[in-house]
């Protein structure tokens, strides 16, 4: 993990996503003017600017277990009282929120388990917006199936929506993140890989770089077979 986090140091985001996708999702709900928002698994804070642009009077509780990510968020918003960043557990937030935003991090809790636990932490008119890796329904190659075999809980998009329903939510809208959202993550990562390879890294770092490159190469060749399903849902 040390090599992984070394590679990911200072990357703008820790998973697929972009401004357009965030704007689309936020447009599906009617937040109050001064909402309380949980950014669950916030990483280095890539989605916080968009949340604040959508609702400038929002209060954001940004949480991630990786301390250096939280340090970056704190440094970026040290003079902004709207953003509170911590390494507190995103599975057990404090109080209730008008929106729980989770970009690609729900798998750490498990889709059904995480959504079930969050349900009582939403206000009466609250919503959850999350993205979950899943099969798109296209024929799946051996390369993609073997690569993602380690993610045993990965299912198709119908399964994601079924688990959302089973956890007590009604889905308002859903769609797969477009390729531009993946590029916004992989393009800076590719540049970082190239930079570190040129510096003649040690064996452990080389192995980690190879793993990151394999993920990018798989997406370039087979990205239509899987994707992040972005889901907007409200508790029933």
Cα end-to-end separation: 39 Å
The main sheet comes to: 8 strands, mixed
CATH hierarchy class name: Alpha Beta
Q: What is the string of helix and strand elements?
A: HHEHEHEEHEHEHEHHE
Reported by name, the CATH topology is Rossmann fold
Beta-strand content: 15-25%
Helical residue percent band = 40-55%
Radius of gyration: 18 Å
Number of helices: 9
Low-confidence stretches: none
Average pLDDT rating: 97
Q: Which architecture does the CATH hierarchy give at level 2?
A: 3-Layer(aba) Sandwich
* Count of domains: 1
Shape: globular
Full CATH superfamily name: Vaccinia Virus protein VP39
Structural classification: alpha/beta
Count of distinct strands: 8
Question: How is this structure best described in words?
Answer:
The protein has 9 helices and 8 strands. The chain starts with a helix and ends with a strand. The longest helix is centred in the C-terminal third of the chain and has 20 residues, at 179-198. It is of the alpha/beta class. Strands 1, 2, 3, 4, 5, 6, 7 and 8 form an 8-stranded mixed β-sheet that branches. The protein has a single domain (12-178, 225-235), classed as Vaccinia Virus protein VP39 (Rossmann fold). The mean pLDDT is 97. 36% of the residues are buried.
Can you summarize this structure?
This protein has 236 residues and is α/β, with parallel strands linked by helices. It is 41% helix and 23% strand.
């Amino acid at each position: 993990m040390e090599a992984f986090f070394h590679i990911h140091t200072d990357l703008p985001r820790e998973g697929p996503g972009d401004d357009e996708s965030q704007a689309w999702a936020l447009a599906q709900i009617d937040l109050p003017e001064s909402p309380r928002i949980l950014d669950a698994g916030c990483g280095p804070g890539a989605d916080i600017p968009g949340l604040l642009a959508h609702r400038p009077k929002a209060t954001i509780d940004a949480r991630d277990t990786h301390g250096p990510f939280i340090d970056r968020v704190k440094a970026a918003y040290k003079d902004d009282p709207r953003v509170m960043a911590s390494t507190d557990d995103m599975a057990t937030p404090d109080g209730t929120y008008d929106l729980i935003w989770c970009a690609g991090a729900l798998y750490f809790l498990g889709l059904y388990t995480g959504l079930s636990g969050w349900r009582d932490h939403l206000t009466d008119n609250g919503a959850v917006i999350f993205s979950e890796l899943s099969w798109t329904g296209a024929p799946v190659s051996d390369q993609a199936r073997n690569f993602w075999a380690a993610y045993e809980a990965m299912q198709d998009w119908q399964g994601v929506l079924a688990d959302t329903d089973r956890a007590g939510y009604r889905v308002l809208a859903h769609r797969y993140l477009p390729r531009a959202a993946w590029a916004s993550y992989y393009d800076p990562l590719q540049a970082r890989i190239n930079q570190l390879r040129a510096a003649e890294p040690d064996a452990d770092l080389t192995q980690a770089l190879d793993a990151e490159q394999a993920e990018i190469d798989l997406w370039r060749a087979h990205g239509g077979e899987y994707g992040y399903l972005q889901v907007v849902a409200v508790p029933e």
